[in-house]
């Protein structure tokens, strides 16, 4: 089928879709919100056109305010592993909403979702629900500091852990550095408590622990770094990280806001068979609604108030609507063969695209793990560090994104963002998407 596509058609750019209503909404939004958006990446600064204002989602498809229909590979940035508007999730939410939407008090739903998670996750014994991934990570950091009675945190360049002050830092110059603030408004004193090293560099890690012996409370890492490209790490590196933390009395935090429940019910910890000390999860545990959680052993978690001295609270934590959505979604993920089928679908999709690009000598590598994929315009077989990504390659993604939008395929509006496949993506969806990707790649690589 691939080679039967007419060559003339492959190189013919499609006209831009209508964005008249989205443009009107964006113009109005700019009078209400900074940059017209409530999260920076939505502003389409890295791609062509104005942001698309989404009006509806169902299954693997979304529709914008102008009525344009897209096969969606953003999936609300990952948590919609069952697709949009899943019937079982929707019905559970409606059932619960009829009895009230917020109480600021305990409900049985919190117990039910916690039991569902803990009974099927060997790496945590207790957890605490919060309202976002950022809040989960922020709380995990405080827990690590309070538990170890140390102040410094070590993170890796290229991993994103939300926008809390101590983690919104980037590497300075040198093998091991104190972080430099990557946002105005973050005091230098906060960054000075954060050490930043390169991913996949055991020597830099050892040097950091030698230089700051007995000062590092926790090392935090995305075990599947997926916020700055898909920077897949080796199991050997993650095991070395585990061993170094153990030797130094430092807690290891796996930030699994993206990878958790995505690459398996036990996330990257289960995939690599490595036990961190603290785990953080995001919106996937609430069917895409605003929720997160952090968990650890009972011994560590019992340092959290009200039983311990480390304070953390949240008025909307354990919100019944989010708990209901999470119960429905995670129950589906536990269905026999769910992940095998999803991963097989993703592997075939990625392999076909990679084969198409390789046969034509296109400088493209599609990285994948579980149901996550990432288009990298490179000929490198492995990209494990942020510095391995050529910023100039983003121009090719920008052109590809435009062509895909015009062909009814929606990806996140940045070449550094990953894509996701859900159980709602049908064989027809994926065949349609592949054809659109082939045509878009032909245009990108054969542009005069």
Describe this structure in words.
The protein is an alpha/beta fold and 448 residues long. It has two domains: 2-73 and 337-445, Aspartate Aminotransferase, domain 1 (Alpha-Beta Complex); 87-333, Aspartate Aminotransferase, domain 2, CATH 3.40.640. It is 35% helix and 15% strand. The chain has 14 helices and 17 strands. The chain has helices spanning 7-10, 20-29, 87-97, 108-118, 133-148, 188-191, 202-211, 235-247, 267-272, 298-301, 320-333, 338-359, 394-406, 427-445, and strands at 54-58, 61-64, 69-72, 126-130, 152-157, 169-170, 177-178, 180-181, 194-198, 216-221, 251-255, 278-281, 292-296, 365-369, 372-376, 409-410, 419-420. The strands form four sheets. The protein has an eight-stranded mixed sheet with strand order 4-13-12-11-10-5-9-7, with helices on both faces. Helix 9 links the parallel strand 11 and strand 12 (278-281). Helix 12 (338-359) packs parallel to helix 14 and helix 13 (394-406) crosses helix 14 (427-445). It is globular and about 65 Å long.
